[in-house]
């Protein structure tokens, strides 16, 4: 800093500036801010820097009022080159990295509402419940687990609606949560198959029975309702006035453009106005509406009365003298090609004979 100041004072003349640095009496010893500051002042500066950051005016006002602002700034940039600053920087980086890695994950011990408590950790028998009503129901069903029919399990889970009192073992419960179905068909599935036989289609019944016999998982939502939902058929019955409007209002009602843009609304008011105007004009000349199709019984009766005459087609047998027969009976020339892949003269024009 002293050398740069001296060089600036001598108008950046290096020879005169060096002569001033080394006078006749001997060299001049210059002390920087690191040597002039005491240990207590250095600790105050570090404390102020940690509190205020690089706000040197507040540092000078609250911690170091006897120091000039120039000396504080000079000391700051000299202090950044020391080992103490590098050590503090490493400690802060390690602390910040450790803070990022310390993620608190709370324990999640929410009980399963479908879980049935067992008897002191022992394997519970008969589906986890020993009530008289459920024993009667279990005897009617003939199995404990609704999927694999096992009578024992270390943990039971309630399955289906509460009025049916169905249970699943631990392995079948995991299978149900994973695939959404059971390993074997339940009583509700059998009831569905038996009750839906007269109403369902034959291919649906064979598919469901084959699925039940092979032991593939049948999707069951636990609902006792055996419902194979069928879509209700419907058709659009157009009135005569609508048919007339389609033919009269062709300028306003453009059906092909409307079909390409199904989400664009049609201006019904304009169509009604045009239909009212055109209807008065066409009152004397009504439009022809397509006749309705006759029923099938009338068409069958007409065909029985007027049967179609089948024409007799006479097919002539080809003779050996016809050009097509000669072409088929002519021997094919399988002569080999030349070396260059070109056909010879006899191959193009036939053999002389």
TrEMBL record:
GO terms for molecular function: histone deacetylase binding; sequence-specific DNA binding; transcription coactivator activity; transcription corepressor activity; zinc ion binding. The keyword Lipid metabolism does not apply. Residues 186-225 are annotated as: Disordered. PROSITE patterns: ELM2 (PS51156), SANT (PS51293). Residues 32-84 form the SANT domain. GO terms for biological process: negative regulation of transcription by RNA polymerase II. GO terms for cellular component: NuRD complex. Keywords: DNA-binding, Metal-binding, Nucleus, Phosphoprotein, Zinc, Zinc-finger. Residues 209-224 have a biased composition (Polar residues). SMART domains: SANT (SM00717), ZnF_GATA (SM00401). CDD domains: SANT_MTA3_like, ZnF_GATA. It holds the Pfam family Myb_DNA-binding. Residues 1-25 form the ELM2 domain. InterPro entries: ELM2_dom, Homeodomain-like_sf, MIER/MTA, MTA1_R1, SANT/Myb, SANT_dom, Znf_GATA. The keyword Transferase does not apply. Belongs to the metastasis-associated protein family. This is Metastasis-associated protein MTA3. It comes from Tauraco erythrolophus (Red-crested turaco).
